[in-house]
# Entry
Amino acid sequence: MSASDVAVLGVGMHPWGKWGRPFTEYGVVAARAALADAGIDWESVDLVVGGETVRNGYAGYVAGATFAQALGWNGARVATSYAACATGAQALDTARARILAGLSEVALVVGADTTPKGFLAPNAGERWDDPDWLRFRLLGMTNPAYFALYARRRMDLYGATPEDFAAVKVKNARHGLANPNARYRKEVSVGDVLSSAVVSDPLHLLDICATSDGAAAVVVSSVEYARKLGLDRPVRVNAVSTVTPTFPNTVMDMPNISTDSTAVLGGAVPERTFKESIAHAAYEEAGISPEDVSVAEVYDLSTALELDWMEDLGLCKRGEAESLLRAGETTIGGRIPVNPSGGLACFGEAVPAQALAQVCELTWQLRGRATGRQVEGATVGITANQGLFGHGSSVILSV
Amino acid sequence: MSASPAVEGWFTTGSEPALLGSRCTTCATVYFPPIPPDRAGFCRNPACDGEEFETTELSRRGTVWSYTDAQYQPPAPYVPRTDSYEPFALAAVELAEGIIVLGQVADGYGVKDLRVGAEVELVVEPLDPDLLIWRWKPVTELGGEADQ
# Structure
């Protein structure tokens, strides 16, 4: 709890799925749900921040204004953020900054997406100087292939098995069963995962998350404003980390075909990897340590990636995530539940909405209102994700 | 033989091919892919304001950082080599210059021939009838276990 906290007044979502409707519809549904949850009328909002979607034309590029117009122009300030998978968190950070500066009082932050069917592929056209185009043209390097590189390292370095990866899916599928906003609400067995097709060795189809339509919205204000509304103990945002990597970035990140060289460090590696630094900055800003965390929502683009994140967030030592998983410590009821919402395994990814969906889930968890998936006694939650081109985020919330 | 490198200036061909990187003449940081000669280059080391680079051959051998394969045909702009899709392996390889470079794995080798930390060597093979590409080939030590 500090002077740089903002209060979460309300959260709302449009269920994830493959609905095939315009993204604005989802955004308005989520926004109205968040406003209703906050007990605030739209006229009181003086700042709208939208998470940009890059797949829905001009309306998507100016998402903040698109949502503002759909809700009815009310003269609010407007901003739109794009930061790949960290889009929602960056939008939240923009809202937080204006509130903490005293320039805005109540902000509505919305992210929504309508996704195409099938693999995510680069835009059409020949671009021999675009790494995101070249990795497909020269190497056939898909997104799942990057996830598979990380998964294979866990196997060769730490003794992880395909059964461990499957167990992450089994856990998250169970967590998401009662989540009304989850797209997939069905039990999955280890056998189901292992008998699904191998996409990129060692990852099976059921190890890899889908792309989805969906929307999430968050209403934030100053702690003072929340108090005036009678909220003495609101969920608070304690930290929003959106740091860039520190040179040299030594992890093979999507969509690159190489890393930075460590020659400048004489071959030594930096103190923290990019993902570790995202979490570290969040902990530092919130003034807490990993031991204080009661629940985590992390970006499980693949099952194995959830295990990487546990270590990047300092929830366990490097190479120990499988032990925690096997002991049931990351299941609801365990020491440090991970992805009680069901995670991307149950949602699929709706890029500009996903980081906000993580914030919605933690808000419900910290209020004790995550029906059917409640982490009992949760007081501190952390989110984490990484996007393309040096974007990533981690948000810490507490009550 | 009319095939030429898929991207001019990224690697040499011949019996001992090598990737071509750009080395900052100020701080000696090495980059791959190389900085195109017709573009302004800026050293990405935050402590260096170098803008001049020289071409340098990267180590031909390295160790496997990780590896996988593509069991489904990747979407365009990937161009399939055959009508019926044949999976291929991919490896991320760490070189002595402290840089990790992705590449396909040489024809005839798959994930079973690789492990993290294993040694591989750069080879140049056809990407299609017109273009050549660099690939990583497992190094078979005499009496070693790693061959097909």
The mean pLDDT of chain A is 96. Residues 240 and 395 of chain A are 4 Å apart (CA to CA). The first strand of chain A starts at residue 6 and ends at 17. DSSP finds 14 helices and eleven strands in chain A.
